[in-house]
Amino acid sequence: MKPGTGNSLKKAALMIIAIILLQNPLISLPPSSFIVKPENFSADLLNRKQITYTITYKDRDFTLPATANQKIISVSRNNNSTVTEIISGEIHLRYSGDLKQHLTNTPLLRTDDALIKKKAMEFKNLSDPVNAVSRFVYNHIKNKTTGIPLIPAPLIMKNRTGDCTEHAVLAAAIYREAGIPARGVTGMILADEFMGEKNIFVYHMWLEVYYNGRWHLVDPTRPDYTNYSRYIAFAYHDLKTEVPLSFLNAISALKGLKVSIKSVK
Amino acid sequence: MKKLGLIILTTLLLISCKSNPQSIPEGAWTYDLIVNGIKAGTAFVIIDETDDLYITKNEMSLKMGTMENTTLQIVTETKDFKPVKLETYNTIKDSASGISQKVSRIALFEGNSIKLASDGYETVINMESPFILDGNFFFKELMKSGFKKGTRIEAQIYEPSVEMDSTILVIVDVAGREKVKIGSEELYLIHVKQRVEQLKIVDMYLNDEGVMEKAVIKMLNNVFELVRVQ
Question: To the nearest whole percent, how much of chain A has pLDDT over 70?
Answer without folding.
Answer: 88
